[in-house]
Amino acid sequence: MIRVLIADDEPLIATGVRTVLESAGDLAVVATATDGSAAVRAALEHRPDVVLLDITMPVLDGLGALGELRRVLPSARAVMLTSYGTEPNVLAALAGGAAGFVLKHCTPDELITAVRAANAGDAFLSPEVTRLVLGLVGPAAGRRAEAGARLAALSPREAQIAALVAEGLSNAEIGRRAGMSETTIKTYVSRLLTKLDCANRVEVALLARDAGA
């Protein structure tokens, strides 16, 4: 079981997140907290594998709690959970070592995927956050040849999926665009991560964009 701590000062949100996670079967919520300081204390007590941190909390906000967790319990992987995927929050979270950034209006599947990815040592960003990151990181001409060479190993269908990932689309949106099921798209994305040696879909998106896909 993947042990999870939820830190959110809104009881309704925390309850909903717990319900979603525990429906997965392999995720167990071991503790909850309503502010960042309490989250750090609870993490030290319960030693969760993954901590879900709301960014806007009293006493100590999620970004502050992230910094403390990286200092006192580096083994715990943190996923930021917020209503606002704004540029400063995203950059601060990624710079602070967050293993994921999920918006509160994400689908249950995205939330579960984010927790599993964090536990596996990968990173997951909501599609909207992926689009924001792509907007912040400009394409580099010097990377074009390398990116093109890496994408050359892909099949035509894989290259199509990579290009759609580069548009910041979710798996469901890619499925509708490509005429395939969401489950099939998940398989393709996993294959892309392996073949391109990427840690997450943001890296796939950057590669595809650099290559001009």
UniProtKB/TrEMBL annotation:
SUPFAM superfamilies: C-terminal effector domain of the bipartite response regulators, CheY-like. GO terms for molecular function: DNA binding. Pfam families: GerE, Response_reg. InterPro entries: CheY-like_superfamily, NreC/VraR/RcsB-like_REC, Sig_transdc_resp-reg_C-effctor, Sig_transdc_resp-reg_receiver, Tscrpt_reg_LuxR_C, WalR-like. Keywords: DNA-binding, Phosphoprotein, Transcription, Transcription regulation. It comes from the Bacteria. Coiled coil: none annotated. SMART domains: HTH_LUXR, REC. Residues 3-119 form the Response regulatory domain. GO terms for biological process: phosphorelay signal transduction system; regulation of DNA-templated transcription. This is DNA-binding response regulator. The modification 4-aspartylphosphate is found at D54. Residues 147-212 form the HTH luxR-type domain. PANTHER family: TRANSCRIPTIONAL REGULATORY PROTEIN NARL-RELATED, TWO-COMPONENT RESPONSE REGULATOR.
